[in-house]
Every structure is written in C-alpha cells, then in structure tokens.
C-alpha cells in the first residue's frame, strides 16, 4: 500500500499537521493547534467511512472560531472498501467538495481540507461540524415537515444540474449505466439469498418474484435509467445524512455524505428518500403531495419539458429499481450492531411495501 501523504487515521494526525491545513483554509488565521481530542460519531449509522469529531485546543485563533471539526476517514470494514473499489465513492466525494460544492444550491458542510490517493484509495475530509443541528433518523423516519423541506431542497439541487454539459466533463463522476455501476447487478445477485434469509416469511411472493426478475434485468434497467432525464443525483439521500435546525434562517437544512453522487435520473433520490426514510403509513398519506412539491419546484427553477406524469413514471421506475440498494446493503455490509440491523430491517420493509403500493414490478422489462 502506497503512502498517501496525509493521515488516514486520527492517531496519525498531529497538531502541527492540523495547524498547517487549517491555516491554508483560513480557519485559524495565524493561530496554532496545540492539541486535540476525538470521539466517534454515527456508530451504526454510517457504513462507508469512519467519522470522528475533533475538539481543538488552539492559541491565537480568531474570536468565534469553531473549536470542533468532523474528520471523515477510510473505513475498517473490508466490505466497504470493496464497494468503494467498485463505485469510486471516495474520489467522488473529494471531487464534489473541490469542484461542485461551490455552485451547488444544497447546503453541505464546508470542507476545510480534502485529499484522495488513487493508488491506495485512501482519503480524508475535514468538515465543518454542523452541530447543534439535529441529524435525521432513518429508523424513526422523517415527519412530513422535514420530508417536505428535504424534497424541496432536492428539487433545487436537481434543477441546478439538470442536463448540464459540465457533468460530462467530470471523468470521476460515474454515469448510472457505467461499467462500474453495472457491477451492482452482479453484486445484487450475490446478495439476494442473504436478503431472503434476512426477511424470511415477511417477503410477499409478489416482491420475491419482482426481486428475482430485477436481478436478471438490472443491467438493462440501468441503461433505461440513463436514457431518462439526467442531472447530478446525491445517491444516498436518506434521513441519516440530513441535518435539521428549527428556527434557523441561515441553515435550517443541510446534507452530508456526497460519496455516492452520480450522473443520471434524479428521481432515484426522491424514491430512495420517500421509500426508505418515511414510515410506510406516513409515505402513503403524504407521498402524492411530496411528489407535487418536488415537481413544482423543478418547474419554478426553470426545468422545462418535464411533466408531472413524466415525474410519476420516473418515480415508479425507481421504486422498483431502487430495491437493489437495500439488497446490496444487507448482503455486503456489517450488520453486527443493533442499530444497523434495525436500519436494514425498516429499509427493506418500506421498499417492499412501496413496490406493492405502486405495482412497480410492471416497470420491469418483459421476460
């Protein structure tokens, strides 16, 4: 393994290194980081990386400077490393912060430092700490007000990059039907038996048949997905990656974890959110209203030639194809912690219910 030239663990960081990079970002002025401590974050929530909150002890720094940062680092779990190798997650997130974040309307934590090593595939991000914002909880599910806020912000994000030719100039930004993404079909097939064991008798025959056909037809469906209207999709738009701050006009909502962004149809994000981060009855009660909020915002932001019927068709398509994501999560990532098991359980149950509600199996290619 090559030396990436930057620390890939908290233990490898030093006050001198933090002083250097934070001065370069302008955060600490001519100040000095004398020492720091760290604590783990998002245990059982984040699976693709390690998160640590750093608390800094500084001298000579500007008044009012935040004393905490979030360090995002390579994971220990080899399964997460395997997924990165297939889908280029870590390079994409560093690429987002360096090349796309400044012109993206959705609020993301500021990156004080970012680096990626293509040989070792190690990376590091030193991010703004969004506390005291409250992190969403995918297991508990979003309420309507927070879901509506997330949907409106998502439409603004998609409208900004809707059909933008710049997306084709970013060689690290994978298309939804790229060879890398098509590996997902084989991974999904390998994971399907584990999902059958995980769900057991809770999987209705309709969903089981749809899942088996999805595994067979997934590559062609990814081609169809790319043929639909394209934008930059977040790729992991779920409650656990969202930050809410009631009563704050400057930053009421922000989103982290930009490592799964891709070029493709944006309704993936909307289906992923509503069928994964809302309790089933909450989704059923508010789904059509939330879809209307999304489409109305797209139109208000200047997207043309995309009707509400087009939006509903794309959404239904992704309700079916989107089943692949919880399937892969259940089949490849560590479920040893109780919170992780609870998350995977509610995620797959909600996705299966949505497939039935929308008769989404009809979106599968004919055998």
Structural commentary:
The chain has 2 domains: about 10-130, 2-Layer Sandwich (Phosphorylase Kinase, domain 1), CATH 3.30.200; about 135-365, Aminoglycoside 3'-phosphotransferase, Chain: A, domain 2 (Alpha-Beta Complex), CATH 3.90.1200. It is built from 11 helices and 10 strands. Helix 4 packs parallel to helix 8 and helix 5 (about 180-200) packs antiparallel against helix 6 (about 205-225). The mean pLDDT is about 90. It is an alpha+beta fold.
Short description:
The protein is of the alpha+beta class and 367 residues long. The chain is built from eleven helices and ten strands.
Q: Main attributes?
A:
367 residues, alpha+beta, Phosphorylase Kinase, domain 1, Aminoglycoside 3'-phosphotransferase, Chain: A, domain 2, 2 domains, 5-stranded antiparallel β-sheet, 10 strands, globular
What is this structure's SSE topology?
Blueprint: H1 15-25, E1 32-41, E2 50-59, E3 68-73, H2 78-87, H3 89-100, E4 111-116, E5 123-128, E6 134-135, H4 144-161, H5 179-199, H6 205-227, E7 231-233, E8 242-244, E9 253-255, E10 262-264, H7 267-276, H8 280-300, H9 308-321, H10 324-332, H11 338-357
Antiparallel strand pairs: 1-2, 2-3, 3-5, 4-5, 6-8, 7-10, 8-9
């Amino acid at each position: 393994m090559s030396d990436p030239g930057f620390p890939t663990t908290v233990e490898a960081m030093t006050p001198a290194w933090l002083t250097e990079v934070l001065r370069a970002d302008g955060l600490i002025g001519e100040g000095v980081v004398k020492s720091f401590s760290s604590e783990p974050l998002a245990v059982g929530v984040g699976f693709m990386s390690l998160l640590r909150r750093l608390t800094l002890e500084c001298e000579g720094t500007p008044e009012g400077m935040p004393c905490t940062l979030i360090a995002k680092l390579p994971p220990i779990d080899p399964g997460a490393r395997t997924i990165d190798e297939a889908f280029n997650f870590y390079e994409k997130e560093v690429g987002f912060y360096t090349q796309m974040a400044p012109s993206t309307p959705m609020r993301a934590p500021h990156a004080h430092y970012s680096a990626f090593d293509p040989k070792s595939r190690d990376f590091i991000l030193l991010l703004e700490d969004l506390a005291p914002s409250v992190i969403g909880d995918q297991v508990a599910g979003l309420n309507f007000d927070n879901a509506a806020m997330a949907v409106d912000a998502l439409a603004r994000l998609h409208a900004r990059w809707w059909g933008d030719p710049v997306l084709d100039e970013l060689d690290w930004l994978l298309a939804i039907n790229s060879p890398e993404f098509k590996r997902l079909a084989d991974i999904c097939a390998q994971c399907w038996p584990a999902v059958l064991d995980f769900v057991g008798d809770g999987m209705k025959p309709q969903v089981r048949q749809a899942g088996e056909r999805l595994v067979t037809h997934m590559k062609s469906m990814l081609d169809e997905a790319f043929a639909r209207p394209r934008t930059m999709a977040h790729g992991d738009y779920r409650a656990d990656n969202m930050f809410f701050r009631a009563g704050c006009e400057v930053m009421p909502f922000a989103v982290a974890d930009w490592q799964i962004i891709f070029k493709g149809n944006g309704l993936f994000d909307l289906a992923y959110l509503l069928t994964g981060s809302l309790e089933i009855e909450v989704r059923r009660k508010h789904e059509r209203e939330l879809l209307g909020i999304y489409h109305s915002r797209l139109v208000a932001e200047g997207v043309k030639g995309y009707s509400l019927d087009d939006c509903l068709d794309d959404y239904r398509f992704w309700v079916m194809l989107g089943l692949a994501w919880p399937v892969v999560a259940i089949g490849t990532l560590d479920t040893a912690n109780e919170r992780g098991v609870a998350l995977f359980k509610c995620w797959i149950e909600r996705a299966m219910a949505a497939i039935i509600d929308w008769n989404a199996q009809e979106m599968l290619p004919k055998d």
